[in-house]
Every structure is written in structure tokens, then in C-alpha cells.
Fold Ubiquinone/menaquinone biosynthesis C-methylase UbiE.
Amino acid sequence: MSENFAKWYDPLMNPLEQTVFKKIRQDLIQRANGRVMELGSGTGINFPLYKDVENVTAIEPNPYMIQRSLNKKEKASVPITVLQQSAEELPFSDHSFDTVIATLVFCTIPNVEQALQEVHRVCKPGGKILLFEHVLMENPVLGKIQTRLTPYWSKICDGCCLDRDTVSVVRQQGFEMVELKQYYRGLFIMMEFQNH
Ligand SMILES: C[S@@+](CC[C@H](N)C(=O)[O-])C[C@H]1O[C@@H](n2cnc3c(N)ncnc32)[C@H](O)[C@@H]1O
């Protein structure tokens, strides 16, 4: 878990966050309801956006990221708890949450299938699964470039893979797609699923 990645994450992301990402995050998070779990909450960039939810339980494995999120957690308008955990092993009972959210996280989780099985388990049947991710592009030329760049990118960005086909993996787990929006020729996607 990189301390440097945590240090540079917000300044590097800021230009995108102030423009298109902010709108995508708002669109995604206003769909959340009830008890919410956020996976890989990072520096807590989503924390100020939670409004009409009961509470948020955020999990994040990188302690340096958690440290940087605490200020936003304190200022949030809903109760937020942050735990140092990984998505592949969630310390919660079955059907604990109404909504599960992850933003720019499934590109980095080492075992995506295991994490999705945990999401299915801890989310209530019929609950919402809300994702904002960068994914493998459908254009084969651009997709190949993403795959070529991934070994280098992953080293700089703490394990982040540019060529994860997250849409297919989530569908294969049996979640029902409610909505899919694509941005920048399908490089970024916003997805709402219903838990089965
Ligand atoms: C690119 S950052 C995104 C942070 C934040 N969600 C955002 O939207 O800006 C990816 C985050 O996923 C976290 N992460 C990595 N492996 C994880 C895992 N196995 N389970 C949960 N989160 C993980 C990283 O520590 C990092 O904070």
C-alpha cells in the first residue's frame, strides 16, 4: 500500500474531479439510500456528496488513504465509519446494506470475483449496487493500448489496471443491470445494478 499514491492522489485527480467526475459522482451517489457501504473509499472524495442516507460504512485497505479521508468524514452531513478492510473479505453479516458503492475501485481490487461475491452477500436482495469505473474500451485498438500500458501504469498507480472488463465481470455474477452510462468513448462508465 503506497504512501506516495495517497499523497498525490487528490492533487493529480483534481482537474478531472472539478469537471466531469463531479457530475458523475453526484449522479451516482444521489441514487444511494438507507444503510450504505462504500468500497475503497480512498481519500474520502465521495464523503461530502452523501445527503439522504441513514449512514455510510466505508472500507479502505490503505491506511495512508484512510488518514487523508478523516477530515472529510468529520465534516460529512451523514454518519460515516471508515474501517481498514479489503473488499474480498467484508466483516459484515449477510444483507446488512441497502446500497453498495464503489468508485474507481474495481480497477485495483486484486480478486474482483471474490469481492463481488462479498458485495452480493452483504447487500440486501433487491439492494442497489452503484459503480463508477474506468474499464477496458470496446474499440479494439484502444483496448490493446490499455493492455500494453497496464504493467507500467499499475506500478505507478498502486495496482490499478487499465484493462479491466468490469462490466462483463459484474454481469457474470448475476447482478441485474438497471442503467449503464458511458463517458469518453466508453473509457469511464457509471452503472446501477440490482442485487439478486
Ligand atoms: C483509484 S483509488 C479510488 C479512490 C476513491 N474511491 C475515489 O473514487 O477516488 C482506488 C482505491 O481502491 C483501494 N483498494 C485497493 N485494493 C482494494 C481492495 N482489495 N478492497 C478495497 N479497496 C481497495 C485503494 O487503496 C484505493 O484507495
Notes: DSSP finds five helices and seven strands in the chain. The chain has a mean pLDDT of 96.
